[in-house]
Amino acid sequence: MSRDKRKAVSRAQEQKAVSSKSEVSAFLQQVSRLPAVNAERGRLLFALDATASRESAWDSAMGLQADMFVAAHSAGSLEIQLAYFRGFAEFYISNWCRSSDAMLKLMTGIQCRAGTTQIERVLRHTLEEHRKKSLHCLVYIGDAVEENQPVLRQLAGQCGLLNIPIFLFQDGHDPDAKQLYQSLAKLSKGAYFQFDSASAKHLRELLQAVAVYATGGWPALESYADNGGGAAVLKLTQQMKGKSS
Q1: What pTM did the predictor assign?
Q2: pLDDT, tens digit, 9 for 90 and up, residues 45-97
Q3: CA distances from 20 to 11, 14, 16, 17, 27 (A)
């Protein structure tokens, strides 16, 4: 092989090495931006108010709830339990599940029934599940409150002490519910958001962020927010830091 050919081959090899090194660096940067995952699966409780007050907008709300549920499942190594209440003291709890298909079928088959809210029961169940095995967060979607508010605040405070943040999504504009939901979010070190079709994209982003938190904790959520999580996710982290705007 001539000297010129050897030089050409050497240059080509160097360029290939530089290119490979660049690709590896880019890959490592991508990996460094991924959320850390807990040694065990994250555990998220997803609770719904299925009483008659939500019936008029239930079909459209169900689409959003289903999207949020799928978004939470798609975000990582996560186990989800579905809970909902409706009717006369009816309170349903599913098994813990790693696959979204069966749970989604169950969720989309729910029909509203007249009854009062059972948020206290949701919170007590959350604490009970945590005693069995660490629960990383509670997601609650509802539109009203018809219970002893001091008791609800006390239970939310217990969740906060146990590092179980509550992420509350309000369907509708009831001022009493809003005030309570915001209080429960603050006491549990969680966050509050409005739930409507206008904010559908943000709701999906938020549930993905919540799932990231459940699987990787606060460092993972901060990393997610800093690397393109979006304005809604940034607002969520600000609320959890006690900087609600």
Answers
A1: 0.74
A2: 989 999 988 877 676 666 665 665 666 555 556 788 889 999 989 999 988 87
A3: 14, 10, 6, 5, 10
Amino acid occupying residue 104 = L
Work out the mean pLDDT of the chain and round it to a whole number: 76
As a whole number of angstroms, the distance between CA 234 and CA 240 comes to: 10
The pLDDT confidence band at residue 123, using thresholds 50, 70 and 90, is: very high
Q: Residue by residue, what is the 3-state secondary structure of 94-116?
A: CCCECCHHHHHHHHHCCCCECCC
CA–CA distance, 59 with 109 (Å, rounded to integer):
11
CA 181 to each of CA 88, 101, 119, 192, 230: distance values in angstroms, whole numbers, following the listed order: 23, 30, 10, 7, 23
Q: Which residues, in sequence order, are CB contacts of 43 under 8 Å at separation 6+?
A: 78, 79, 80, 81, 96, 129, 133, 134, 135, 136, 214
